[in-house]
Design a protein that fits this description.
single chain; alpha/beta; Rossmann fold; L-fuculose-1-phosphate Aldolase; 2 domains; seven-stranded mixed beta sheet; six-stranded mixed beta sheet; 17 helices; 17 strands; binds zinc ion
C-alpha cells in the first residue's frame, strides 16, 4: 500500500517542523517518517551564493530530487536521502531512509511541484501573522544562529518578494490552510521574554480526502497550542523571578491526554522558553513504567531511558526529567529562595511543620539525595496519591497539580509564608561578599564559583540563605564533601553520555 503523504508548506519559521512533530505524535511516532525540505538546499550556509539567492527561491533547492525521493518512498523503497545539518549549516552524509505508513513532508516548497502535489494525500499550508513570524524568526536567528536584529530584519525584507513569488502561491494548492495568530499584539517583537497567547484556526479550500485523519491531527494541534500557551506563560512567570529560581535552575512540565509530556530542555533558562523553542517533548510512560518495576538503575541507565523517551527532533530534556515523569499531573519544580533558608537548615523539619499549619495540602518531606536517579527513586518511595507538595532537603520544592496555574499559586504562597515566618528581607543583589568553602544545595556546588570568581546570582543566593539563617539563629546544614563530589561526578557522567 502506498504510504499516506501529508505535505506541509509555508514560509520560513512558521512552525512547520513543530506541526510535523505534533502530527507524528498523534499518528504514532513509529508509523511516521518526517522528511524536511531543508535537506534539499543546494548550498551550505557559508556559500557566497546566499548573498544573491534566498532559500525561498526554487533555484536554490533540489526540488526535482525531493520529488524523486518522495516517489521512491511512496513505492515503498528504501532510499539514501540527503541530510542538512541545521546546527552547522552543512550537509551530513546521506542517510538510509525507510518508508513508513505515514510520510510527513514538510518544507518551504512541499506543495510547489505538480509531482509533489500529486503524491500528497493531505495538503496543508501554514499561514502565520506577519508580526508573529517576525517575532519567532528574530528570536531563533539571534539566539541560535547569532545574527543581529538588523541582519534578521534585512533578510526578512529581502525575502519578501521571493515569498510572494514562490511560497504564497502554494496556498491555493492546499486543501486546508492552518493559521497561527495572536489574540493581542506583541509589545516588543523579538523579545523572547514577551508573554504571548497563540491562537490556531483552519479553513478548507476544498474537500480533504482523509478528513478524519486531518481532524484528528488538528485536534492534537489545538490541544498542543493551548497546553503550550499555559506552559510558556508559567515558565516565564517562574523564570523571571530570582525568588523562585536562580541561574538555569528549576523546571516545569505539563502532561497531555496521551503519554506525552512537555518539559524545559536541558540548559535553557525558564524565562527564555517560548512557543517554538526551549523545551522537549517526551513519552513519560516509558520512564514511569520503568521506575514502577522498582529495579535499581544506574545514572547512565536513567540517562539512556530519558534519551529513549524523547521524541525525535527535540533537544535533550532537563536532567530532572525522571521525577517529572513519575509524579501525577503538571509539575513545577523550583528552588524558592525564602523556603531554601528553611530547607538548608538543620531545623528544617520542625520549621516545615509551622509552615504547613493551616494548609489543606498534603506535603511530603524528602531527605537530601543526589539529583537525578537517586532523587527520583526516593520520590517514588515516598510518593503518595494525595501529595501535592514535596519539600526537598537542601534542594527545593516540587508542586504537582492538575494544572500549572494552581501549582504556581501554591509555589508562590509557600515561598511567601517562609519569608513571613522568618521575617526575611527582600532579595538584593550584592557584588561583594565573603568567600565560602561549604555548599548548601546542588547548584551552589556546581555554579557559585566560576573560573574567574563568582557567579553573582548563585553566590548571592548562597549568602542570602546564610544571612537568613543567622538572623533566625538557625544552623546551616552544609552538604558533605562526599555529597558535593557525587553531584560533580553525576554531571560529568551525564556530559559523557550525552556526547
Ligand atoms: Zn532542582
Amino acid at each position: 500500500m502506498k504510504p499516506l503523504v501529508i505535505s506541509i508548506s509555508g514560509g520560513s519559521g512558521v512552525g512547520k517542523t513543530t506541526m510535523a512533530k505534533v502530527f507524528a505524535r498523534i499518528l504514532g511516532e513509529d508509523k511516521c517518517l518526517v522528511v524536511s525540505g531543508d535537506d534539499l538546499h543546494k548550498y551550505e550556509r557559508r556559500d557566497s551564493i546566499w548573498n544573491e539567492l534566498t532559500h525561498l527561491d526554487v533555484s536554490a533547492n533540489n526540488l526535482d530530487l525531493g520529488d524523486y525521493y518522495l516517489k521512491w518512498l511512496c513505492s515503498n523503497q528504501m532510499i539514501y536521502r540527503s541530510v542538512y545539518n541545521h546546527t552547522y549549516g552543512t550537509f551530513d552524509p546521506p542517510k538510509l531512509t525507510e518508508p513508513k505508513p505515514f510520510i510527513i513532508n514538510e518544507g518551504l516548497h512541499a506543495l510547489y511541484s505538480d509531482d509533489s502535489r500529486q503524491l500528497s494525500d493531505i495538503k496543508i499550508y501554514v499561514d502565520v501573522e506577519y508580526d508573529l513570524m517576525t517575532h519567532w524568526k528574530l528570536i531563533r536567528d539571534r539566539k541560535e544562529r547569532g545574527y543581529t536584529k538588523s541582519e534578521v530584519m534585512s533578510t526578512i525584507e529581502k525575502r519578501k518578494s521571493d515569498f510572494e513569488k514562490y511560497i504564497e502561491p502554494q496556498k491555493d494548492h492546499a486543501d486546508v490552510v492552518v493559521t497561527f495568530s495572536l489574540n493581542s499584539p506583541i509589545k516588543e517583537i523579538g523579545n523572547s521574554e514577551e508573554d504571548i497567547d497563540l491562537q490556531i484556526s483552519h479553513s478548507t479550500n476544498r474537500d480533504i480526502k482523509h478528513r478524519t485523519i486531518f481532524e484528528n491531527m488538528f485536534r492534537g494541534l489545538e490541544e498542543y497550542t493551548s497546553k503550550l500557551n499555559e506552559f510558556v506563560r508559567c515558565c516565564k512567570e517562574i523564570g523571571k523571578s530570582v525568588e523562585f529560581v536562580q541561574g538555569k535552575g528549576g523546571n516545569i512540565s505539563s502532561k497531555f491526554e496521551d503519554s506525552t509530556m512537555i518539559i524545559k530542555a536541558s540548559g535553557s533558562l525558564l524565562k527564555e522558553v517560548y512557543h517554538s523553542n526551549g523545551f522537549a517533548m517526551i513519552d513519560y510512560e516509558i520512564i514511569s513504567n520503568r521506575y514502577a518495576l522498582s529495579e535499581k538503575m544506574t545514572e547512565a541507565e536513567m540517562c539512556e531511558l530519558i534519551d529513549e523517551s524523547t521524541y525525535t527532533g527535540y533537544k535533550n530534556p532537563s536532567m530532572e526529567t525522571a521525577f517529572h515523569a513519575i509524579l501525577d499531573g503538571d509539575v513545577i519544580h523550583t528552588h524558592p529562595l525564602y523556603l531554601m533558608v528553611i530547607l538548608c537548615s538543620k531545623e528544617c523539619e520542625n520549621l516545615l511543620g509551622h509552615l504547613m499549619l493551616g494548609e489543606l495540602l498534603d506535603g511530603v518531606f524528602i531527605d537530601y539525595y543526589t539529583p537525578g536517579n537517586e532523587l527520583a527513586e526516593e520520590i517514588i518511595n515516598k510518593k503518595n496519591d494525595h501529595a501535592q507538595v514535596y519539600f526537598l532537603k537542601n534542594h527545593g520544592l516540587i508542586v504537582c497539580n492538575t494544572d500549572l496555574e494552581k501549582g504556581l499559586m501554591i509555589t508562590e504562597r509557600l515561598n511567601n509564608k517562609a519569608k513571613e515566618l522568618l521575617h526575611l528581607p527582600d532579595y538584593e543583589e550584592k557584588t561583594r561578599f565573603e568567600d565560602f568553602k561549604s555548599y548548601l544545595f546542588p547548584d551552589d556546588v556546581l555554579f557559585s564559583k566560576t573560573s574567574n570568581g563568582f557567579d553573582i546570582e548563585m553566590a548571592n543566593t548562597h549568602n542570602y540563605i546564610i544571612e537568613g539563617m543567622k538572623q533566625n539563629e538557625l544552623t546551616p546544614d552544609f552538604l558533605t564533601e562526599e555529597q558535593c563530589q557525587s553531584i560533580r561526578d553525576s554531571i560529568l557522567e551525564k556530559k559523557r553520555i550525552s556526547k
